Fold:
Amino acid sequence: MIRKHVFGVNANHDSGFIWRSREVSRLEGFSDAVIGFAVTLLVVSLEVPKTLDDLLISMGGFVAFGFCFALLVLIWHTQYTWFRRYGLDDTPTFLLTMVLLFVVLFFVYPLKFFTAFMMEWVRSGDFRHFPSTLLADGRSVQMIGDMGQLLKMMTIYSAGYAAVFGIFALMYWHAWRRREELDLSDLEEIETRFSLMEHAMHFAVGLLGAILASVAHSAFAMFAFFLIAPLQILQGNLRSRARKKIEALGPTAS
Structure:
């Protein structure tokens, strides 16, 4: 049987998806509040600058804050899109959402620290030595003492990255398992399948980074994330080809 295709204005606003939910559920509202709190944690430790030097030091963390903020927005938007597309509010959805929120809150400070470290390291231009930071009492200390500590930090960051996208992969797998009940169209099935593959790919990259850092004790762990761009391009090309095959058939009825 040929399943129906989704065409038209109502379907094109989200990769051919017809949104099955337009109202914010209590679960989604709680999730929004928790992610908003996570954003607050990014800046809660900052004090109002008392001197121009303090202000300039605070402004130096703007790029790191922007990166962390963008990553949290990506997490929020990914979850928002999933809820809009499938409108599921069952026990697996509840459990996966709770685990996701726990991971986000737990890894906010490691994300903030690691991002600030990397930005400062790049800004210094001296990759032979780890950058320093000023403490509240005016003392200057190294953010990371040696390569061993850097690998530990890479393990924590990579594990958090893998956990977030692993949960999203499970959420899309859950939606894929219920595709018949949701009456997904051909295009919607393609998007669901490739979204599952995309998040599984991000999970695999994060897991690879964690393994290289914790098991192999290799500095190449930080370069594992450079695999994302070519893998994303490959996945995008495969998705585009699959969509074109369906769209070439034109509107049909199931």
Notes: Residues 205 and 246 are 30 Å apart (CA to CA). The chain is about 70% helix and 0% strand. The first strand starts at residue 132 and ends at 134.
